[in-house]
Structures are given as C-alpha cells and as structure tokens.
Amino acid sequence: MSLFLDPYGSSFYDFLAGRGPQPLPQAPQIGSQPAASGAPGLSGLPAVPHGTTVLAVRFQDGVLMAGDRQATEGFQVAGRRIDKVFKADEHSAVAIAGAAGPALELARLFQIELEHYEKLEGDMLSCEGKANKLAQMVRGNLPMAFQGLVVIPLFAGYDLKRREGRIFKYDVTGGRYEETEYHATGSGGKDARDTMKQLYRRGLPEAKVLRIALEALYNAAEEDVGTGGPDLVRGIYPTVKVITEKGVRDLEESKVAETCNALISERREKV
Amino acid sequence: MALPYYVSPEQMMADKAEYAKKGIAKGRSIVAMECADGVLLVADNPSASLHKISEMYDRIAFSGAGKYNEFEMLRKAGIRHADLKGYTYSREDVTARSLANAYSQSIGSIFSVEPKPLEVELLVVEVGQGDKPNEIYRISYDGSIIDEKGVAAIGGKAEALLTFLKARWTAPTFSLREALRLSLEALDTVTNQKLGSEGLEVAVLDRTRTGRTFRRIGSAEIKTLLA
Fold first, then answer.
1. pLDDT tens for residues B73-89?
2. Is the CB of A115 less than 8 angstroms away from the CB of B56?
3. What is the CATH number of the domain that holds A215?
4. Cross-chain Cβ contact A122/B84 below 8 Å
5. Would you call A52 a catalytic residue per the annotation?
6. Is position A77 within any domain?
C-alpha cells in the first residue's frame, strides 16, 4: 500500500476519472465502430480538426491569442458568436480547435483543474506543469478522437519564473511541442501560419502583433470555409486575449474592430 | 477470546468528547468577523506557509483549528466536494450551507463510529452576493453545527474570544481596518501575548470582487492596516 494514501493527488481530472459515476466522456473501445465520417486520415485517425482558426503569437510583453468566432456543422454555419479562446487562470489561456462539444468541455475542465490545484496546494502550477497536464487531458481524449471527435488545444501562458510568454501546441495523441514564435491550429491554421511567417518579427509591441494576428485570421477566413471572417453587419470580431506578467486581459472589442476595419479598407484599395 | 467490557454509550461519548476537547484546547485560535466589504478571517498562526485559512470556492472560505493533518484532510475533501458540485451543476449552486452539512455529517459519523474522534473545529464562511447576508457556520468535533452571526471563533480559546468579541462587535459596518484591529485585540487579550503582523494569517472574502472573492492579506498589508 502506498504511503501517500490520497489516490487523487491535487488533480481534479484524476479525481473525476477515479470516482464514479463517470462525468468524463466515455468512448467505446477503439475499433469497435468505424471512424465517424469526418476526414479520416491513416488508419482511421482523423487528420485535422475542422472549422476553426485559433492562433498564438509571442510579443515583447508575453503572448497574444486570437480565434475566429464561427462554428461549422458540415456545410452549415452552426454559430457566429462562439468563443474559442478561454482564460485558463491568471497567467494562461487555452484556445480550442476540433469537435465543439468535447473541445468546450476540455477547456472548462482545464480551467477547473488549474483552480483546483491552486486551492489544494496553495500554489499555482508552473507554466510547464500546466502545459503537461493539458497534454495528459488531450491524451485522455484519444479514444474519442478515433471516433472522429478530435480535440486539439493551443496553450499559451506567461512563465513567471522565466519572465516570458510561452506557446505549446498539441497533437491528437497528447504530444506536446513548444513553439518559440507563433502557432496556429484548426482547419485554417496553415493559412494563418503562412501569414504570420511573412509578418512575424521578434519583440514586437502589442499593437503590431494584434495587426499580424488579425491579418492571419482574415487570410485564413478567406481561404478556409470553416473559418469565419469579421462580420461587419452584426459587428462580430475575433476574440483576442493578451497574456502578460500582469495577467490575462481581453482586448477591447473597439480596438479589435478598429484594427480589422483598417485592414479591410487597405485590402479594398488593393483590389 | 475475552469478551470486551461493557461501556455505556453515555460514558463512551463523554470520554470521546473530553479527548477531542483536550486536543482542540492545545491548538491556536481563529476569528471570523463580518465587515462592510465582506468577511474577515484572522488566525493566530506563526507559520507563513502552513495555512489555517483557505479558499474553498468563489465566495466560500474554510478555516480549521486543532490537529493539522485532520483539518487539512477535511479541507481537501471540501474543495473536491465544491469543485465537483460546481462542475456538475453550476458555480452558483455551490453553497456554504451544503458544505457545512457535508462536514457535519462526516465529522458526526466519525465521532460516533470511530474509536478516535477528530480533534478539529471548523469554520465555513460564505460572503453574500449583492445585498444577501453572509453566512458563518461553525462545526464542532462531534458534528454539531452552529449558524453564527457577526462574529465566530474556533480553537483553544474560542469561548473567551467569543465573549470578548460579542461585547464589542456591533454591526457589520466595520471597515476592514477596524475589523482587523478588533480581531487582533481579541487574540492579544485572550492569549496574553503581543501578536505582530508576522504571527498572523489574515484573509478576506471580498464582497466587492467578482468571481473568486478570496484574498490573502500579506504581512506588509497587515502592517499598513494596523499602522
């Protein structure tokens, strides 16, 4: 018998998984059903999550995170005002791509996980610790991924020890990879990455990096049907969060709108 | 096998109660007090890292006196209970009353069933939202639960503290500064010593905050408040 009797430690996720009735999503065993008709890649594993672009870019004070607002259901728009970027705790945020239901659940569970740890331990998890825990949670979703319900988060945090912003990307198997400059994921992720590759410079100020992020999202929306562009009629603009030493902050919608409108009028002149 | 001696239930309970009281009497005390901006918790605690006061949920705080390992176990169980309830239903469905009830049930059944009772006293405090009143529950070693108004105290000198405070605390219009001064005065008088800002653990459930209202007040801020 273990000397440390507490079977759950400080993790809410493990606590949920260890006690019944199971609030964690349970998937049938792998191979018991054919993979859902998403976009099955090799051996039935769906290749990319659909219908989203979320991105994170480092800048001089930390990380900026942004995401489009559209939810897609096959060839239909399921939602125009969905938020895909969430504050995880005081110094980190998580953006989600993939099947909306499990993805939103993952984000919510991750928020509770961090708060739970902080309350039990009386101390916040390190930035690296948060990224690793999220990797375990993504891995836990692997059986569901085989059913077509892929969830790929993007994690950005401010590392208070290193005093810098950090970005982590994930794969379906819970693989965790750190990015030193920027990353975008989702169906429009490649277009967003291409844009950022052209425009990104080290140590930019917030306003510049906001412009890059919005331009990347705009290009992604142009090329990818699953990504929504700024909706000028309804006044819906991308969600933008800024993670710095001072904490996580929602960027004011007016500022995002202003930058978006400037970008659009510049494009108009080019056409 | 020899038959166990017969012990009457009255005798058994009286022995257990005496044992638990003795254990708690050795421990230091904690005061909870309603003030204008929320509820203040002040503990006589020389350690800066081993806490007696802790955040439980958005508007709920926990405090334990007595045996550290026992109230720490209860604290963890409470946080799990609260987080699970908030996850299953909604954040607003987590209440101090339900937590206090859960504690009362568990501590009460341990008191009557287990050979050794828990040597703890707990406070579960909730700050009201908007114009709703605050709630302060005191749970004893035998699972009995008391709904306190205005001020509450647990630990070795609980009764003396309560008498001292009840005579001076008038209405929840005290500022944070006044509430802290009164709490410190009570602790100083009852324990016959001079507790500095280093010997105190102070936290507040701040009514004016949204989301997580629990805030620790560090020794630097205590000094400014007492100055």
1. 999 999 999 999 999 99
2. no
3. 3.60.20.10
4. no
5. yes
6. yes
